[in-house]
Specification:
By secondary structure, the chain is an alpha+beta fold. It has a single domain, classed as Jelly Rolls (Sandwich). Helix content is 23%, strand content 28%. A seven-stranded antiparallel sheet has the order 1-9-6-11-4-3-2, with helices on one face. Strands 5-10-7-8 form a four-stranded antiparallel sheet, with no helix packed on it. A hairpin with a 6-residue loop joins β7 and β8. The radius of gyration is 16 Å and the shape is globular. The model has no long low-confidence stretch (mean pLDDT 91). Bound molecules: N-oxalylglycine and manganese (II) ion. The site of manganese (II) ion has 3 residues, from loops. The site of N-oxalylglycine has 9 residues, from β10 and β11.
């Protein structure tokens, strides 16, 4: 097993207690390196301009966000590794928290220099099937003054709960309906994998 049982236990207890967790030791380094080598080699055209809104009302709105994304697919061996680890995570979280999560999906995000994603919530109560959000960062040698921080706000508040720098190997997990968050403008190209644990197989 790629991830230790004790790590799942601490993820589950933090999600239950605080609703979020930031980890710096989630994935084995070989898998991180493969994901990084893969994502930076992807041609620019394979990414699509990310959209905002729900499944039936997706819109391009580059005032809200201007990152680009590419969905991970089981057919690609390196992407499959990541999806398999998150599938194990899904099973482990269900065992410990009874969240009834049935599915995980994820896309690579590419924030070109100057890109951002304004404050938003990943899932509105009753409207979406997203239960837990995850973001995994793939930026080696990221400096503190590079921008591109993920800001998590306290629920229904302007108070900052946590500022997360997109360092290589950092993983953040949070309850999708609880935490407004935003990505500050990045001064350098910034790569991540954003993923969601769903209650059912519907993609929203
Ligand atoms: C998202 C998101 C955060 C990040 O894609 O919904 O909030 O740090 N991403 O990339
Ligand atoms: Mn988000």
């Amino acid at each position: 097993m790629a991830i230790k049982d004790s790590l799942y236990t601490s993820i589950a207890s933090s999600l239950a207690k605080d609703g979020y967790i930031v980890l710096t030791n989630f994935l084995p380094s070989q898998i991180m390196q493969q994901l990084y080598d893969h994502v930076i080699a992807l041609p620019n055209e394979s990414f699509h301009q990310a959209r905002v809104g729900s499944k039936n009302n997706l819109q391009l709105n580059n005032k809200v966000r201007n990152d680009k994304s590419l969905w991970l697919c089981k057919k690609h061996p390196i992407e499959k590794n990541y999806l398999a680890i998150m599938e194990e995570c899904r099973i482990q979280l269900n065992k410990r928290l009874f969240l009834g999560i049935q599915h995980f999906e994820a896309h690579f995000s590419y924030y070109k220099t100057g890109s951002f994603y304004q404050r938003h919530i990943d899932s509105f109560q009753g409207q979406s099937h997203r239960i837990v959000s995850s973001v995994f960062y793939l930026n080696p040698d990221w400096s503190d003054d590079n921008g591109g921080e993920l800001i998590l706000y306290e629920p229904d508040s302007d108070n900052i709960l946590c500022t997360i720098r997109p360092h290589f190997g950092t993983m953040v997990l949070f309850l999708s309906e609880e935490f407004p968050h935003e990505v500050l403008p990045t001064k350098y190209d910034r790569y991540s994998i954003a993923g969601w644990f769903h209650t059912d197989n519907i993609t929203d």
